[in-house]
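Annotated sample (chain length 103).
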Amino acid sequence: MSAFVRDGRRFRQGSLVLDPGARSPVVWRPYRFPGRRGPAVALTGPLRVRGEGPVDGPGSPAVDRGAFRLLTVEAADRSWELAVPAVDLPLVRAALRLPGAGT
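Output written by the structure step:
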């Protein structure tokens, strides 16, 4: 699904790949101009959602704040701020709770 990750003071556009059958079931893939994907980065588990709210703060004007919600996810190796489509929020939350997510 289309998603954004806060990278310092900006949001980077890319894809959040949720595949419970994969070795890494939750993966971030940044977009690179022109239309190519960057290297995949697996979210290392265990994963825990620390917060949910509107997309705000540094870089937020780059994201459609009416269509996306901000999730703060704590992984084993770092904290992630993910702007995901509001309609997909239940799916993302369920994927983050799956056994093996982020391994």
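Annotation: Helices lie at 89-97.
Annotation: Strands lie at 2-7, 10-18, 26-32, 36-37, 41-42, 48-54, 68-74, 79-85.
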